[in-house]
């Protein structure tokens, strides 16, 4: 009998995390194939026709919207209960590059609830939603990437929101969600954003946005925002920002706002990373993350393996994080530093104190520029109960300072450093 695995605080990993079955297209209900409804690979934007087909499927008891071989253009689509999406091999659901094809809606963006542009694929309040198939969902983001960098050149302080652009997939208040097998690529903005969802699986996906010749700004692979029970498994992630990012709110009173909250029981395993800024990032808009595992990962050229962004204007708690069985090439093995982008205490007279504790690294073999990139800032954040064990690290710079962390354990760690 297999021993029960646990999350870092000892909570058993539920059987749900081990069920990686992907339903066949035929198991998703009645087939609504785009071309059967005169939605064609003809270079036209078919938003109204596709939305009408989704609405019809919902009214008729549910089923699956099928994207056949070819390229089909659309703006924002809003899925209904019982209606799934399947993209066949050779098929591409491609987003418009005109922001007017994405309506303004009440949504969640950068740790705040606000009015912003809808994503390409949207779902709210669904129970049991599957997006799958071997084809692609392509954001078609090149035009907005160029516009963003041009705007930054004109105004270096412009924010992500200032250059209007949609996300690829936004799921809110959903449960029992499966995203499987797809190529999710070229998003204008964040690629996948899940907010206040539970029991969400990303299986066997290829998530990509370019870092050159035009950088795709802020195209995070998966943003997990106030969610519980999330599995990311057997995925390839290469994006021009962070890959798996834990969010949950920002601001001096973020921990008291009802729309903000924790991410708990997050498992990222058996994935491969190309270039990205962070493999696992407790993000710049994050309040509380607990019971997070990153394991059995291969990394090529990522900037940071574990990145804890410590905002001086936000109370944060990162606890019970485990990073294990990692192989590859990384700039920073661990990065913990103040994060002051768009810093704003909003009149609060004191700076909230933050914490990171019960963080474990084990059984990793990596090449790094810097092994330990940690800046102690006791007046802003306190680090405690870190464990480093069974590590084989080659680095240009070691950087390890035991006095940066309260209660640190080091066992069987070899760091071969040029300095």
Q: Can you give a write-up of this model?
A:
The protein has 419 residues and is mainly β. It contains 2 helices and 29 strands. The strands form 2 sheets. The chain has a 27-stranded parallel sheet that branches. A two-stranded antiparallel sheet has the order 7-8. The longest helix is centred in the first third of the chain and has 13 residues, at 47-59. It is globular, with a radius of gyration of 21 Å. The mean pLDDT is 96.
Name the descriptors.
29 strands, mainly beta, 27-stranded parallel beta sheet, two-stranded antiparallel sheet, 419 residues, 2 helices
Please describe the topology of this protein.
Layout: E1 31-33, H1 47-59, E2 63-67, E3 70-74, E4 77-79, E5 83-87, E6 91-95, E7 104-109, E8 112-117, E9 121-124, E10 127-132, E11 136-138, H2 142-154, E12 169-172, E13 175-180, E14 183-185, E15 192-195, E16 198-203, E17 206-208, E18 222-225, E19 228-233, E20 236-238, E21 244-247, E22 262-269, E23 272-273, E24 280-282, E25 288-310, E26 317-338, E27 354-374, E28 381-397, E29 406-417
Parallel strand pairs: 1-2, 2-5, 3-6, 4-9, 5-10, 6-11, 9-12, 10-13, 11-14, 12-15, 13-16, 14-17, 15-18, 16-19, 17-20, 18-21, 19-22, 20-23, 21-24, 22-25, 23-25, 24-25, 25-26, 26-27, 27-28, 28-29
Antiparallel strand pairs: 7-8
């Amino acid at each position: 009998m297999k021993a029960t695995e646990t999350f870092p605080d000892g909570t058993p990993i539920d059987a749900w995390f081990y069920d990686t079955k992907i339903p066949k297209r035929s198991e998703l209900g009645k087939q609504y194939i785009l071309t059967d409804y005169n939605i064609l690979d003809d270079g036209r934007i078919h938003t109204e026709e596709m939305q009408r087909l989704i609405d019809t499927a919902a009214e008729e008891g549910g089923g699956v919207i099928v994207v056949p071989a070819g390229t089909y253009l659309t703006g924002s689509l809003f899925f209904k209960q019982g209606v799934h999406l399947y993209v066949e091999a050779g098929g591409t659901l491609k987003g418009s590059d005109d922001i007017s094809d994405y309506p303004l809606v009440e949504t969640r963006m950068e740790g705040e609830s606000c009015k912003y542009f809808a994503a390409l694929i949207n779902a709210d309040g669904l129970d049991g939603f599957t997006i799958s198939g071997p084809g692609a969902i392509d954001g078609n983001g090149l035009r907005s990437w160029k516009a963003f960098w041009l705007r930054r050149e004109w105004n270096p302080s412009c924010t992500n929101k200032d250059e209007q652009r949609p996300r690829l997939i936004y799921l809110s208040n959903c449960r029992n969600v499966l995203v499987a097998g797809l190529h999710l690529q070229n998003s204008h903005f964040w690629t996948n954003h899940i907010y206040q969802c539970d029991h969400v699986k990303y299986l066997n996906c290829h998530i990509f946005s370019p870092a050159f010749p035009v950088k795709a700004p802020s195209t995070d692979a998966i943003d997990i925002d106030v969610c519980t029970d999330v599995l990311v498994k057997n995925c390839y992630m290469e994006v021009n920002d962070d890959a798996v990012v834990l969010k949950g709110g920002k601001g001096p009173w973020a921990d008291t706002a009802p729309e903000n909250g924790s991410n708990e029981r997050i498992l990222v395993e058996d994935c491969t990373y190309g270039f990205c800024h962070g493999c696992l990032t407790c993000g710049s808009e994050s309040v509380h993350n607990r019971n997070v595992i990153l394991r059995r990962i291969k990394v090529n050229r990522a900037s940071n393996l574990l990145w804890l962004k410590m905002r001086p204007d936000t109370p944060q708690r990162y606890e019970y994080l485990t990073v294990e069985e990692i192989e590859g090439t990384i700039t920073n093995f661990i990065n913990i530093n103040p994060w002051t982008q768009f810093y704003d205490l909003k009149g609060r007279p004191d700076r909230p104190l933050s914490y990171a504790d019960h963080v474990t690294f084990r059984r990793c073999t990596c090449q790094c520029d810097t092994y330990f990139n940690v800046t102690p800032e006791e007046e802003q954040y306190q680090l405690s109960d870190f464990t480093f064990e069974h590590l084989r690290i080659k680095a240009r710079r070691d950087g390890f300072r035991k006095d940066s962390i309260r209660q640190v354990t080091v066992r069987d760690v070899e760091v071969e450093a040029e300095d």
